[in-house]
């Protein structure tokens, strides 16, 4: 019986195999291999112990290699806590490192990959600040970000504003901190700044993204965050243009209907292979963001890289089944680099 948390494909979701899928890949064996890769394994496989003997150890080690170190965790927590305390002192008269704010991005969703690029903070400002800036003319959002920058400059002299006009950045050497100021609405939504095109407020999806991913990860016994982290490593290693939050959303979508979504590391080779097949089928489509239902185009700039990764994954899975450990490792490293062990 299917879980009520995971509806069948619909509402903009696309299955990995369907109309127009073969045309993205071309004809021939590659398309046939893609289709066969999505066939579910038998429910009972008494001879499993004789095959795939390296898979579990390889992927346990891979996930360990992706985890940030204790020193990196402590550094990030110290710095983000200090920034939140600085803003709380100015706007609320308290020195709390947690109040009126929360972590977003990979730190908020626990999808960090070593080394972490940055820590994202959403800081909720008092309502009075919103009305203060509403009384102004011009680009209110730009002026508000400038105020946040000036507040932080009192403690962090290297503070700057990033070019996309949505955050203030403290570019620490090891773990940069990015701060997005926001306002909590009476309906529970959070408005954040966008200084582009004269300035405006947009609705943040940060809380809805974290909740959606957490529900999926709980149901899939940790596999959603694991898959997201592995795909972020692929993104980083191969310079893939897909943004991290899109890879997280795609991981949630894929695991909604993948039949082995509650299996352990022993099935991660198939999970990666089948995810790339699914990803290829999502080219030129859209992701609908939780909380706002905003449609974000996925494009296809990354399609060739996904097809290439899929081919390597198919071959790696074949080698894993035959217990050709180093040959499988070579194929995995062509996707993920040295973070995944060559042998196990």
Your description of this structure?
This protein has 344 residues and is of the alpha+beta class. The protein is built from 13 helices and nine strands. It has helices at residues 21-25, 29-37, 55-66, 70-92, 105-109, 127-134, 140-153, 206-219, 223-238, 244-257, 268-281, 303-321, 325-336; strands spanning 101-104, 119-124, 160-161, 168-170, 177-184, 190-194, 200-203, 286-288, 295-297. The strands form two sheets. Strands 1, 2, 3, 4, 5, 6 and 7 form a seven-stranded mixed beta sheet that branches. Helix 11 runs antiparallel to helix 12 (303-321). It is elongated and about 70 Å long.
Low-confidence stretches: 1-46
Largest sheet: 7 strands, mixed
Output the radius of gyration: 22 Å
What is the molecular shape? elongated
Helices, by number, come to 13
Number of domains: 2
Can you write the helix and strand succession as a string? HHHHEHEHHEEEEEHHHHEEHH
Helix and strand content put the structural class at alpha+beta
Level of helix content?
40-55%
The overall pLDDT, averaged over residues, is 87
Tell me what portion of residues adopts beta-strand conformation. Answer: 5-15%
What's the N-to-C terminus distance? 36 Å
Number of strands: 9
Organism: Bradyrhizobium sp. LLZ17
Keywords: Antiviral defense
GO molecular function: nucleotidyltransferase activity
Protein name: Nucleotidyltransferase
